[in-house]
Write a structure and sequence with these properties.
The complex is a heterodimer of chains A (367) and B (477). Chain A is an alpha+beta fold. Chain A has helices at residues 44-48, 57-61, 68-83, 89-117, 121-142, 164-186, 190-196, 204-209, 215-219, 226-229, 250-274, 331-337, 339-343, 351-357, 362-366, and strands at 4-8, 20-26, 29-36, 151-152, 155-156, 299-306, 309-317, 323-329. Chain A contains 15 helices and eight strands. Chain A has a three-stranded antiparallel β-sheet with strand order 1-2-3. In chain A, strands 6-7-8 form a three-stranded antiparallel β-sheet. Chain A has a two-stranded antiparallel ribbon with strand order 4-5. In chain A, a hairpin with a 2-residue loop joins strand 2 (20-26) and strand 3 (29-36). With 477 residues, chain B is mainly alpha-helical. Chain B contains 17 helices and no strands. In chain B, helix 7 packs parallel to helix 14 and helix 11 (295-301) runs parallel beside helix 17. The chains are: A alpha+beta (367), B mainly alpha (477). Chains A and B meet through strand 1, helix 4, helix 5 and helix 7 of A and helix 10 and helix 17 of B.
């Protein structure tokens, strides 16, 4: 068979969103891959210039449907840096708790999406079953199941409801046995390992050169986690190991995310234990941002470990209640740039396996 | 051996019916045609229309007594028998497919800890709905009969019209009133889905190769239905008793990849093309071990006739599956999953990368029949497994129960016992599908050539040794 271009997407079961991948195949072997992004562009960066600082969390919540809290957190952290707001200690711990809760929700969403990519629909059902328990907790907290709108500049919208942390700990206790079930279903499943081991290898050097971050980078053997190496909020006061694998294949990426679920539960427990019982959950933030000039910096930046990698917000003030410019760095967008390295040489059947393993989210990618 | 379905139909059903119909036709034509012809000829004479004359001449030729063809002739009887047997087997298969798909969904809901189909069924409300429809139409008919024919001229026209309007309102209003929540273990979901597919548009790609595009589903579905021709479900329920039964079935099994390849090419879509190519590539990996794993049975039984294979197992008092220490059934089972294209070997329609694989461009009833054909193939595959390795409709439990059942009911339930075994094997298929991911094309080639083929050959060697040692007389099992 002669080589041919196959266009996958923007509507395709593999894409998990609205994007397009063009691959040139020689029979089943991929000889060239060309990701084509931008189908879901909503001009979030421009829109944020039109609204006052506190209202922009509405847009940042909608950057990623799977982890709105981490994105809003990145934005408010950048604005706090811009305005010089000091977040109260209790609020910093509360933020760590909701961020890790969000990470668990996001990783479970990824697990539920990754199973059907391999034809293992059981993973989807199991993943959503456990996610539902955590969803109930976050619904009790924020009143929402999507786009929680919980973070505020200087802290959080409100304090935890009474007894909520105990219920969260109970949920974690219920969740960990199910995690063992996942390991039995995937790690001990030889077909699963056949499909993922040695597939879509991303060498550490390529990963670093192409700007890959987060679980995908750690799966390639690079020991970098923004929560540890560049601590923000209360992460510096907590003690947790980085989850690193060395192979750089789909299986390594799978294992890193699976064990990050365990790690997140550990961080949650630690943070709930160390969190001060009394204290403010929110500091008063000024209405206006500073003006950006050469004398006073007037810019704010925040780099956080999102569920998909290192997210960054860069905010420039203009002296009034509106930001002058908001720049978003999406980890998924840079990771998709590395997808040709993983795809070329693989087979057509590996495409969903590889692209599922990097955990795409188009909302944040196209902004 | 009992009577086949063919013989039962021929002797008990169709011969008397055909004789009766022949007599009826003769009688009708004898009574009706001459007066009719006479009346038309009279009309032709009176009016002078020559056309009516020709019409009368034509009708007189329709006189059934003049035709040499009768339904009760041997040729017509055998033709009718084959047609009726085919329709009956098809209906049997369709009922089984409905049950299989329902069973699969319910088993998935158990295994995946989720809710399966639950809501769709006909409940009291729905029954009431049918009562309203039928009662409205009946009332309409009765009213028309009474008002127009029994008391003509005695009912005012306005009342007549009002009565018709009321009956029509009840009948057709009920047709529109489809509200009501439904129960019944979700079985009616199958009918609802069928209804949905029936109403879908048949979309044909503009650049499709129409001949092959239309031919491929026919080939796939009809070859799948033909599979059941040589499968006996008990010694009293089978269509064909042929000494080449298993060879025929396995041969027809191998027709489907041709349809998949052709259909995948003809749809002019890259996904379907890759799916069709995968089917052809896959066939090389599973077809040989599939056939080789049947060889032990041929060694033990010395025949290709499934009826006789079952009889040999009864005579020997053991299942042939035990003869190779369950190695041959294992290989056969794994190859069967590939043959019927289910997860983990459903590469031709791998829906995560190939959208829906080779069936992507087939919509509506074409898609439904392709889907159903796969369940027919699973059913037949499970039936072969049960027949040749696990004693078919015979077995220890059934042997203990059969005399009592015959004593109570007057007939045996061998078909039901066979079906129960088939469904058990199918539940195994469901279990595999619920818990395993899909393998890759090169990996199934690896599995087929490096694992299954040697295992099948080892099974043959074991079978030869066992037969040499006359294992059936050991009475170990």
């Amino acid at each position: 068979m002669a080589q041919m271009w196959v266009s996958m997407g923007p509507q395709h079961p593999m894409t998990h969103g609205l994007w397009r991948l063009r691959v040139r195949v020689d029979g089943e072997i991929i000889t060239e891959a060309d990701p084509d992004m931008g189908w879901l562009h909503r001009s979030v960066e421009k829109l944020t210039e039109l609204y006052e600082y506190p209202f922009n969390t509405i847009f940042t919540d909608r950057l990623c449907y799977a982890s709105p809290l981490t994105w809003s957190h990145c934005y408010v952290a950048a604005v706090e840096d811009l305005m010089g707001v000091e977040v109260p200690e209790r609020a910093r711990y509360m933020r760590v708790i909701v961020l890790e809760l969000q990470r668990i929700l996001s990783h479970l969403m990824w697990f539920a999406a990754y199973g059907p990519d391999l034809g293992l629909f059981a993973a989807a059902v199991y993943g959503f079953r456990e996610r539902e328990d955590f969803m109930d907790r976050i619904q009790e907290l924020t009143g929402q199941r999507l786009n929680y709108n919980y973070l505020r500049i200087g802290g959080l919208k409100h304090d935890f409801p009474p007894g909520w942390t105990d219920r969260l700990l109970e949920t974690c206790d219920r969740f960990l046995p199910h995690l063992e079930e996942y390991k039995g279903m995937c790690e001990n499943n030889s077909i699963f390992r056949m499909r993922t081991q040695g597939v879509g290898i991303l060498p550490a050097k390529d990963a670093m050169n192409l700007g890959v971050t987060g679980p995908n980078l750690r799966a390639s053997g690079v020991d970098y986690d923004a929560r540890v190496d560049n601590p923000y909020e209360a992460y510096g006061e907590l003690d947790f190991p980085k989850v690193v694998a060395t192979e750089g294949d789909c299986y390594a990426r799978f294992v890193v995310r699976l064990y990050e679920l365990e790690q997140s539960v550990g961080i949650l427990r630690q943070a709930i234990k160390q969190m001060p019982d009394k204290g403010k959950y929110r500091a008063r933030a000024p209405r206006n941002g500073p003006k950006c000039d050469r004398v006073f910096d007037g810019t704010g930046v925040a780099r956080v470990e999102d569920s998909r990698g290192e997210a960054m917000f860069y905010v420039i003030g203009q002296g009034n209640e509106y930001p002058y410019r908001v720049k978003i760095r999406s980890p998924a967008y840079t990771t998709i740039g590395a997808s040709p390295v993983m795809l070329v040489g693989s087979r057509v059947a590996d495409i969903p396996v590889i692209l599922g393993s990097i955990d795409m989210c188009i909302g944040e990618t196209d902004k | 051996m009992g009577l086949s379905l063919h013989e039962v139909l021929l002797v008990y059903l169709l011969t008397p019916i055909a004789g009766f119909l022949d007599g009826l036709l003769e009688r009708i034509t004898g009574f009706l045609v001459p007066p009719l012809v006479g009346a038309i000829e009279f009309g032709a004479e009176q009016t002078g229309f020559r056309v009516l004359g020709y019409l009368a001449q034509g009708i007189s030729y329709l006189n059934w007594t003049r035709f040499p063809l009768r339904l009760s002739t041997p040729f017509m009887l055998s033709f009718l028998t084959a047609a009726v047997a085919a329709v009956l087997l098809f209906a049997f298969m369709m009922v089984n497919v409905l049950v299989l798909t329902w069973l699969e969904r319910k088993m998935f809901s158990r295994m995946w800890d989720m809710r399966g189909p639950m809501a769709a069924s006909l409940n009291n409300m729905q029954a009431l709905w049918w009562v309203f429809v039928v009662a409205g139409l009946a009332a309409l008919a009765v009213w028309v009969w009474v008002a127009w024919f029994v008391y003509p001229g005695e009912v005012a026209d306005s009342v007549k019209i009002a009565g018709v309007a009321l009956g029509g309102f009840v009948a057709f209003g009920s047709l529109l009133w489809t509200r009501g929540h439904l129960e019944g273990a979700g079985f009616m979901q199958q009918l609802a889905d069928g209804n949905k597919f029936f109403l879908k548009e048949l979309i044909i790609p503009r650049a499709a190769d129409l001949t092959i595009y239309n031919l491929a589903p026919i080939l796939f579905v009809s070859s799948s239905i033909v599979l059941i021709a040589a499968i006996p479900f008990s010694d009293g329920f089978f269509a064909v008793d042929t000494s080449m039964g298993l060879i025929f079935t396995m041969g027809v099994f191998a027709v489907a990849p041709l349809a998949v390849l052709g259909g995948g090419w003809a749809q002019n879509n890259k996904y379907t093309l890759i799916g069709g190519m995968r089917s052809a590539a896959m066939m090389m990996s599973y077809e040989i071990p599939l056939l080789l794993s049947l060889v032990p049975v041929f060694i033990f039984a010395g025949t290709f006739n499934p009826l006789e294979i079952v009889q040999r197992q009864v005579d020997a008092g053991v299942w042939f599956g035990t003869g190779t220490f369950f190695l041959a059934p294992l290989v056969f089972m794994i190859c069967l999953v590939a043959e019927v294209e289910r997860i983990p070997f459903d590469l031709p329609e791998a829906n995560s990368e190939l959208v829906e694989g080779w069936v992507t461009e087939y919509t509506g009833m074409r898609f439904l029949f392709l889907l159903m054909a796969e369940y027919i193939r699973s059913f037949v595959g499970a039936a072969i497994l049960v027949l040749v390795f696990f004693g078919g409709w015979t077995g220890p439990i059934y042997a203990a129960l059969a005399p009592t059942l015959v004593g109570i009911l007057g007939f045996d339930l061998a078909v039901l016992f066979m079906l129960a075994k088939i469904y058990l094997v199918f539940i195994l298929f469901i279990w595999i599908r619920a818990s395993l991911p899909r393998v890759r094309t090169d990996q199934i080639l690896q599995i087929g050539w490096h694992r299954l083929l040697p295992l099948a050959l080892i099974a043959i060697v074991i079978a030869m040794f066992m037969q040499f040692l006359d294992w059936t007389s050991w009475s170990l099992f």
